[in-house]
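Q: Please design a sequence for this.
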């Protein structure tokens, strides 16, 4: 861990701990998150942990820029990694089918494997939730096995259905809401991520882990899933 404190605005600091993405970073990111919350107390407006950084927004009426920097330095000196076992583990059922996962065949061909093998690979690992962003409840997860890692689409789709599960490079994620998107869509889940976020209780939080589980269309429908096909060029 190499602590760097960067200015991110008149009342915000970017606390940078690492330069590269790695699952092992999260123990330090989570420890820094708690230490900064404790150190800033009521002067903290918001704190957003991510892959290698934490964006800290403080109350400039309470702290000067130099005071905030000093408080960060003091809080993180001698930091020890957190216990990552404290995060929640989630099993997410997914219906993998070309009607709702229009990129299944292309991603499988790129990897030189069958669609069944692609699904097995996507379901065989526990993925760390690194950060929340883009849309309420949207968790950026990884790291996807190199074999099935696939670059984002050159041209994003104008509409990706809620519950769509996709891959972008070595990341994977679930779209909580219908939205534009450039990730490679493999399937769909009926888990209502947006409903949790709307209540202020996001299902996925940084430090959690996720494993996907392949289910049948019948099971997906029984869970309330929307089987409306996603247009290839939508």
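A: Design:
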């Amino acid at each position: 861990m190499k602590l760097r404190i960067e200015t991110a605005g008149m009342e915000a600091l970017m606390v940078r701990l690492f330069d590269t993405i790695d699952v092992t970073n999260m123990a330090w990111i989570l420890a820094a998150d708690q230490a900064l919350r404790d150190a800033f107390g009521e002067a903290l407006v918001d704190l957003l942990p991510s892959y290698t950084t934490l964006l800290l927004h403080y109350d400039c009426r309470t702290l000067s820029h130099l005071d905030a920097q000093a408080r960060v330095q003091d809080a993180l000196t001698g930091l020890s990694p957190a216990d990552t076992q404290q995060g929640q583990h989630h099993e997410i059922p997914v219906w993998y089918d070309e009607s709702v996962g229009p990129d299944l065949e292309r991603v499988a061909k790129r990897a030189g494997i069958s669609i069944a093998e692609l699904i097995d690979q996507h379901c065989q690992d526990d993925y760390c939730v690194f950060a929340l962003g883009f849309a309420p409840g949207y968790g950026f997860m990884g790291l996807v096995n190199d074999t099935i890692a696939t670059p984002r689409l050159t041209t994003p789709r104008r509409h990706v259905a809620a519950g769509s599960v996709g891959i972008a490079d070595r990341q994977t994620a679930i779209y909580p809401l219908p939205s534009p998107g450039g990730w490679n869509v493999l399937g769909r889940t009926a888990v209502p991520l947006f409903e949790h976020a709307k209540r202020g209780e996001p299902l996925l939080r940084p430090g959690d882990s996720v494993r996907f589980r392949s289910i049948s269309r019948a099971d997906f429908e029984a869970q309330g899933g929307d089987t409306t096909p996603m247009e290839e060029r939508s």
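Q: Thanks. Anything notable?
A: The domain at 4-85 is CATH 3.30.1360.40 (Gyrase A; domain 2). Residues 144 and 170 are 5 Å apart (CA to CA).
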